[in-house]
Amino acid sequence: MKYRNIKHHNSRTNALVVFSMIDNLDEVTFAFRNSKSDGKLDEYKYNTTFTFPRKAFEEKYGDLSALGENLDLLEKTLTGKIAEAKEAKQDISPEEKQRIDLYIMALKAAFQAENGGDGFIAVKLDTLEGLSEQGKEEVLKALTSLSPNVYNFENVRNDNTKFKLDDEGRLMSSIDGTLLYIKVEEYNENKAIIEGVSWFGNLGAVFPKYEATFKNGKWELKLISMAIS
To answer: Where are the domains of the chain?
Structure first.
């Protein structure tokens, strides 16, 4: 029974990955046999099967295609962190949603001003002042419109397929990707001064600064300065 439970757990994990990667798959079945395979398919010897419907996973995890587009989110989900957060999460307040919208707008504007490529985007989440973990995840999710591969910077900062590092492990440049973060100078419910940063190398980065005004339920950005390195 314990062995069967392990198989079921592993199959369920694999099902989540498959559903996240294949949008039009409604059901998946995993089959196991107790005897050693001789390389030929004999369906009758596969005496243990587990079938999983897509709908059950969508009810628990939400939009599965979002997980397929964001490998960082998928990894957290597989380790149980997202599932635990969903069980305990509370609705995002209107005030936090307003901050989320501003940060997303500033990050996207900085990326569009200049970037190091859209192979991936890494975000310094610790610069997103006033956001809960759920709010930060919403920012990451929104940035998948710029790249299908969006990460928490702390999870990839030492990944030599994404960043070139010097001998002391300091960042030198990105590899077909962009590091994004913000600097909030002033913030109140209707106005803000915010700088977006799009970094792709020690000699490659832009720092657009915006005056933001909240009108009719949305933010409007006015560029007030632009620094380039």
So the answer is: 2-69, 94-228
